[in-house]
Design brief:
The chain is an alpha/beta fold. Helix content is 49%, strand content 11%. α3 links the parallel β3 and β4.
């Protein structure tokens, strides 16, 4: 007989796993429950990894709800595909899905088709948006830096100001100024050299002049 392995997840320690534990034991008959207390923003879940290490082909992975397993339809499908590659079935109590049944397998095929459709829509909308922008005479991407501001920044840097200070003085993004200076440096070696400390600043506190 295959074993049912429960998986429960909550996002913060303020939440309670007990409801999921009870349903997995009583409704699914889980012999063991693996848990994670971690935000869905991170997909590195040690409890799920431990479950996979413990499982054997033929076992059933069970959750209370689908959102306990993935942050998106894409991640859910990838995770369930991983189960399938290991010979594991998957069951969700709330949605009454079971990949061990023909109906459950069909539902996940439909989910996969929907995810593919969504990806196609995103690509098409992006393409249409770029075409519409070009038709209006707009160039997609970063707007070009005002040449006068760049010239003023070079003047300030040559006068002794650090690039970060010059960028702040002129209302420029620091990374934008670094990028433009590096580009100019490649074209004209006489362009002020960037201090490596400026490129990767890691001060514990901001210097007085930057506050």
């Amino acid at each position: 007989m295959p074993d049912v392995l429960g998986y429960a997840r909550i996002s913060t320690s303020d939440q309670d796993l007990e409801v999921q534990r009870r349903r997995l034991r009583e409704e699914a008959g889980a012999i063991r429950i693996f848990e994670d207390v971690i935000s869905g923003k991170s997909f590195d879940r040690p409890g799920l990894a431990e479950l996979l290490d413990y499982s054997r082909a033929g076992d059933v992975v069970c959750v209370v709800r689908l959102n306990r397993l993935g942050r998106s339809l894409k991640e859910l499908l990838e995770t369930v595909d991983g189960f399938k590659a290991r010979g594991l079935a998957f069951r969700s109590l709330e949605e009454r899905l079971d990949t061990a049944s023909a109906a459950g397998e069909l539902v996940f095929h439909v989910f996969g088709a929907i995810a593919h459709f969504e990806r196609r829509l995103i690509v098409e909308r992006t393409r249409d948006g770029l075409s519409a922008a070009r038709a209006r005479g707009k160039r997609p991407g970063r707007p070009p830096l005002d040449p006068d501001k760049l010239a003023s920044a070079l003047t300030l840097i040559q006068a002794g100001l650090r690039p970060a200070q010059a960028a702040k003085q002129l209302g420029l993004g620091r990374s934008t100024l670094y990028r433009e200076l590096a580009s100019l440096r490649a074209q004209a070696p006489s362009t002020p050299t960037l201090d490596p400390a400026e490129l990767h600043p890691v001060p514990l506190t901001a210097p007085p002049e930057d506050r």
